[in-house]
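Explain this protein:
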Amino acid sequence: MKKLLLVLVSAYLAVSSPAAMADQDASSIYPEKKAFDDYVFGQPLRLDLSQIKPAETTKSSAHAENTTFAPAAPLSQVRVIAVGSNNIGWENIPVGAQATVQDHGGAFLAVAVLEMGYGGNPIARMNGGVVPSASIFRRDTLCFVNGSAAIPCPPGNTVAGFIVYWDVSGNQNGFFQHTNTSLNSPWNTLSAQISIR
């Protein structure tokens, strides 16, 4: 009996060890994530950061190995910067655009929103319905390195804002809106919207 128990424990440890788990394809553990990555991120996310300009920046006294957060600046800008779908891939949205140029659709749909400054509680709506906050599948830090926007923020730089990624799958098209309120004075609320074709 002890021998059988020892064999079973050894077999379990061999299969569940970190090395064995690393050899497993992530899609077998999280098939929905694999599908989302394949179709939406199958084309690398290449955001057009050239239109993102720094506001007044605060010098950081942090150690070079750490990414630092500046004193919580209020939100100064919120805008949709990209829409992604498995039919099109990622479409960068220029400043001032009211709608996508591409005809998105398919099983997966995502929206990337730029927030300059610090907001407290992002809220999204798609076709009038509230999108659950659990639909934020990624949040990148943004900072400025030698005057150019960088995501994610490299170590040693001060975070100036965030890119928030919403999964709005289940919609082929429609009207998306993102709203957030600053964490501190003047507690202003900013929003951005886009009509997705």
Q: What stands out?
A: The CA atoms of residues 42 and 89 lie 7 Å apart.
